[in-house]
Specification:
Elements: H1 12-22, H2 26-29, H3 31-44, E1 53-57, H4 63-71, E2 76-81, H5 84-92, E3 101-104, E4 117-123, H6 132-142, E5 143-154, H7 160-167, H8 181-191, E6 194-207, H9 210-219, H10 236-246, E7 255-267, E8 283-284, E9 290-293
Parallel strand pairs: 1-2, 1-4, 2-3, 4-5, 6-8, 6-9
Antiparallel strand pairs: 5-7, 6-7
């Protein structure tokens, strides 16, 4: 059944292929992803770091990697992605004086030595890592004691309208399962990363119709690669039922698409120089659950 845990297991090879195909046109379609990564970079600016090695985990086209190299010019900056096509695009994003290393690898199995990275930056990648604990264990392994991990990922309200519309059309899952902020926090604590701090933002995009939203998701490589995806070709009748159900969400001339964004940060096994929270405790800021609107 679509709601079983196995139904949401991600096919890593299909995931790699989807992002590989989307790489050339990714930047033009990834407005939300750019917005979230910019916010994450702004949060990182509050820390006075001088890292020797920086890992952009799930670098995509390297736009953020280039900014990390600008910010930390003396550091070895590594752009890592599962999709070779994304790394080809990242090569084009290098400047003459801002060159960075590129590494084709899976976040679930990092080809890096233990305790070799000072700063791990990862924006909207962890939702593609299943099981999440394995990816976090790899981050914990490669980040040095006292190193820093900053990330964003999607929470369970992401694409809730599309999920509900598909649920009324058939019995398959068409949208990935996303963990809530408490589950992410628990996974961080179990991984051995220390002093995790998390908060949640909600962003609402607007689309003229459901098909435009689906085309945008396809353009960034966000295909349904779960084990519970429908295996037959999508029929017109099912698609019509889904689009009709989505119309119940219409406000004025547009349909909403909600994205719940979880932002997080934690330290390596050594913790920060000045502890911000007791070991093993996850801090979720009570006033940090916000809602913003943005147009697609």
């Amino acid at each position: 059944m679509a709601e079983s845990a196995d139904a949401f297991r991600l096919d890593r090879e299909r995931l790699r292929a989807a992002f590989d195909r989307a790489s050339a046109g990714y930047e033009a379609a990834a407005g939300l992803q750019a917005q979230v990564s910019t916010e994450l970079l702004e949060r990182l600016a509050a820390f006075d770091f001088a890292p020797r090695v920086v890992l952009d985990l799930g670098c995509g086209t390297g736009r953020v990697t280039r900014e990390l190299k600008r910010r930390y010019p003396r550091a070895l900056v590594i752009a890592l992605d599962i999709a070779p096509g994304m790394l080809r695009e990242a090569r084009r994003n290098q400047g003459l004086w801002r060159r960075f290393a590129r590494l084709n690898a899976d976040a679930l199995q990092l080809p890096l030595a233990p305790s070799c990275v000072d700063l791990v930056f990862s924006s909207l990648v962890l939702q593609w890592c299943e099981p999440l604990e394995q990816a976090l264990a790899e981050v914990r392994r490669v980040v040095r004691p006292g190193g820093f991990f900053v990330f964003s990922t999607f929470g369970p309200d992401t694409l809730k309208e599309l999920r509900a519309a598909w649920a009324s059309a058939d019995g398959h899952n068409h949208v990935n399962r996303f963990l809530d902020v408490h589950d992410v926090g628990d996974a961080l604590a179990r991984s051995g990363l220390t002093e995790p701090v998390l908060d949640v933002d909600r962003i609402e995009l607007e689309f003229p119709d459901a098909l435009t939203l689906m085309r945008d998701l396809k353009a960034i490589g966000a295909h349904n690669v779960t084990a519970g995806r429908p295996r037959a070709l999508m029929g017109r009748a099912r698609l019509a039922r889904m689009t009709a159900a989505y119309e119940a969400w219409r406000r004025g001339g547009s349909l909403p698409a909600t994205y719940e964004v979880i932002y997080g940060a934690s330290w390596g096994a050594g913790g920060a120089a000045h502890s911000a929270a007791p070991p093993g405790e996850v801090h979720i800021a009570p006033g940090a659950i916000r809602r913003r609107e943005a147009r697609s």
